Amino acid sequence: MLWNQLDEYQQKYLGEVRYTDFLLGKIFDELKKQGLFDNSWIVITSDHGELLETSHYYHHHFIAEKVYAHGETHYEKEIRVPWIIHPPKSFLNQIQKSEFSDQVSLLSLMPTLLGLNRISYPKDKLKGNDYSKAIFGEKGPESEPVIYTEGRFSESILTPDFKYIRRYPGYDLVRRTREGTSHKMPEELYDLIKDPMELENLANSNFELLGEARSILKENQLSKNSFFLRLPKCENVCEREVRFFSKGGIYRYDFTGNLKVLQEDSKNIVLKILNTSSHFDQVLEVKTIDPSPIFRLEILKNGILENYRIGKWGIRSDNSLEILRDEPEYVALDRFPYRYFSSEIPFLYYHTGFSGGKETEEEAAMGQEVRKILESWGYIHQ
């Protein structure tokens, strides 16, 4: 009777689960035949679950156009996965703790396996916890207070009390049905104590918890390359409009002052910088999804196109078209460029501390000589 109440997708999924179980059994049988089963560490896990409930299926319609979600959402049905370790027989008498009831993440799988096998590793190179101490009955971590999950153009943090989901710019439209009207839902916030089924989105009502969740996400978010645009202070009241395109896509952006978003999609933002008369410079940081230095930028100051400097040696934008065409990575650098903080006009560079763009010692040593040549050609002005 229960089987007949399931729809086609749910029946197929349960069939896949049964088939996977059958195949695992065949693998274990073969390991036993070869005498390896009792001498091996065997791990069973998954990349994600399957969302097979209609209460949440609208979430992903803008991507997959499917009834149910497959690796699309951050709801419990998708991010709660198996985390099972079968130890060799010789380790069984050493195991004191075999079940962890609080939340743990897949990031901890590698350090835990290394710890179980007494293999040393650089602690600063791996994220996650080593649960081997607790498993062996020693004092050690038994859970993780925050679990970060990266999705398809979205991300989330999970604590024991709440979950916060953020969609990337341009990927925040959802609709209840395939033919329904799209509406923006850039954030979701759920009180997991009162609402374990994640049905009441608190992002537009519980602003105190939302602020806390945003801060926790920023502390745990992915490390990304960033464009940094420094806007020097205005001596008098002025207004700037920044039009920016990133080929690598926009992961998130932050600004140190006040702004109004005029346009936003997955690769473009148009921002109106409000009341830029101040005693301080202002900085726009745009993190990119992919590590690409290719960009387009226009800055209007009081309605007039404003020049800016770019890249390693601060070439002015009105002299940069040929250089950027032949060497688009010119704008990329793993440190603050020359005159970044002292330029009298805006300055843009692409910080590549996380992937690509790092100079060799020879390139750094040549920097001053190259700068002198560019000055003699008129590309750099003091």
UniProtKB/TrEMBL annotation:
Superkingdom: Bacteria
Gene3D superfamilies the UniProt entry points to: Alkaline Phosphatase, subunit A
Sulfatase N-terminal domain location: 10-116
SUPFAM superfamilies in alphabetical order: Alkaline phosphatase-like (SSF53649)
PANTHER family: SULFATASE, SULFATASE N-TERMINAL DOMAIN-CONTAINING PROTEIN
Name the record gives this protein: Type I phosphodiesterase/nucleotide pyrophosphatase domain protein
Organism, scientific name: Leptospira interrogans str. 2002000626
